[in-house]
Amino acid sequence: MRLQFLLWPALAILLTSCAVYSAQQFDNRFGPSQPRQRLLPAASSDARLFREQIKPILDQRCVVCHACYDAPCQLKLSSPQGIDRGIHSRKVYNSTRLLADPPSRLFEDEQSVQGWRRRGFEPVLNERDQTPKANREGSLLYRVLRLKQQQPLPSTLLLPDSFELGLDPAQQCRSVERYDQIETQRPLWGMPYGLPGLSATQLSTMTQWISQGAPMPESSAVTAPAQATIDHWERFFNNDTLQGQLVARYLYEHLYLFHLYFTDRPQDGFYNLVRSATPPGKPLQRISTRRPYDDPATARVYYRLVTEPATIVAKTHLPYALDSAREQRWQTLFFGSDIPLERLPSYAPDQASNPFTTFAAIPAAARYRFLLDEAQATIMAFIKGPVCRGQVAVNVINEQFWVFFADPNNPISDDSRNFLAEQADTLALPGATSNSVLPLSAWVTYAAKQADYLEAKTRWFNQQITRGLALNEQLIWDGDGHNRNAALTVFRHFDNASVTQGLLGTLPKTAWVIDYPLLERIHYLLVAGFDVFGNFGHQLTTRLYMDFLRMEGEFNFLSLLPPAIRQRERDAWYQDADPSIRDYIFSRHSQLQGEPGIDYRTDDPKAELLHRLMTRFEPVTTHNPHQLRGSALHPDSIALLQRLEQLRGGGIARLPEVTLMMIDTAQGGSSLVSLIHHRAHANISSLFDEKAALRPAEDSLTILTGVVGDYPNALWWIDESQLPELANGIFGLQSEADYRSLVSRFGVRRNDPRFWQLSDRIAARYRETVPLEAGILDYNRLENR
Fold first, then answer.
1. CA R_g for the chain
2. Can you name the residues that pair with 677 across neighbouring β-strands?
3. Is the pTM of this model over 0.85?
4. Which of 234, 293, 328, 651 could crosslink 280 through cysteines, CB 3.0-4.6 Å?
5. Helices (H) and strands (E) in the chain — how many of each?
6. Which backbone phi and psi does 2 adopt, to 5 degrees?
């Protein structure tokens, strides 16, 4: 042990010396390194070449793995600025760090390449003498592409174990000066990593571009019509009245991650709403803080629209329309009456992290209606928002469940404003004590607050019941008869999730009913208040508090069942869970009075209630684009796939979380289908040993048309005539060998020569069917099986 202790400093010195020596060798060959100006006017010929020839290659072959915070080595190839920023060996996702990391958000935390170099980011393009040879040999991007050409993937059935795949592989973030070590020690690790290489034409195009110094375009100038629309919306967001400033702050804290677009000009792309110290008409001076509600350190905050500079990727894409109807809706909600204000609320952490305090002056009904109008996006934000690797957020939810919302038109909503004002302190969220080094003490504090809130909520509901409130399905919002956001399905795919409109799949094990306080807390816990660069304490406290919110939503649903059934269902949802966890929420709600006002007629009230809700929501759930009956498949094929959805257990456990399947029809068309595997759990209250809670005998499938899931684990490509054979293979799955045989027959593995052909077809179909919602899929979770 003593010898090891002495060797570590020596090893560190040796590695540092090697790095310095390698850099000196490059300096001797190509001159000293310094950032280069690569961004050219958008109208230049070189900029057009990038957009027309280089960007499609990067998007289709590189961005599939290099986007968002989970990009290997933090290399984001989705924008010129990300390419210029380069690589860093520090991982953004680190659940063990004791101290929060400084944020490294592209476009926010630094505005220059020099700034990123000071932060330790290393280039992937040549920053030495600008000669063709130096531009190639001094470019890490070129070297990794060339290595794949020199050492293509082996033609074996599976990739060798030397490939480090999966959710959290070891990173080899070598600078170009030290990349020869990878070329020697890991010759198969060229890029795209663990996938087929570029075509000869694509590689030639990339080589020519890199040899010329890799010129890239600045952001395109905004067209005059688009600028007029931007000016109009910036006037709306920057109303000088105190009421206008408070409303704008509320809107910003909910929309800052969204991709806004103008419905009358979708061709102009997407925009981001940002905070600025300068007003509209002046050069933007962006305010960047860890959270959207942190102190902006300026006397007046202005809200500005800026073009989204990066390629749209599915895992972070949250489209949100701005048009005259939206403006009129917001005028009605937020400016229909005067809000008396003497001063604006502060940005002190204990207040700013609590929306029930900060925005108390805005009627709760208006805030709730705003969230409900786009409820799918509101829920998706905690999955696609600041995390883009969602395990922190989604390992507290079940594999498939339906989401409903409390009706804002119910008379009890008239009394809720006073109740919320009284409970503002108990509704406080852990963001006020972010990055605590004592997470359990913080958790105890907020657990007590949540307990107090639930007890007060139960008393308040009992008062409403004595005044004639009936616990029935009329308490559930029906979307006002037209809003498709009223009924949602959440699919969990282990460490990520999807949210779709409509009630999809078979009857779920659990369901949530979300009211305004719950919906707002979900947003401020997992979106506005979540710091992806935070420490272990912050992430643990966030995860534990989300347990409370899930259980609250579940109990809101259970309250519509007969009292004798509630505990039976609760016990089924929390098998093998610690009794203290199982009883936590029920001990607070155990005094809820009265039978539900629903005439149950079967011995399965939960299924009966879900069927009643399905009938209630038919006006807003019919013609769902994900339902198989709307696909191009033959009715017999649809019936066969629906039979697969009735399977339980067996070999289902061997299927990936998400499989995208391209099915070519006899008529010359095709249908893109998502096969979603639900891993059943005895309970989802276990923090550290989720495997122990798995119940593979209860696993099931949902099969939908289109893309559901931003991170496919497998790609299949079959003729429709092969569906019976495929179905029989799934019905008969018993071993890993059976699964490998199935994939060999119908799958397109990572090293299949047809991989990019199928990938391009899937991407094209995705864009054709949902052009506003589509984005580039993420391939970091593709299996090697």
1. 27
2. 701
3. yes
4. 234
5. 29, 14
6. -65, -40
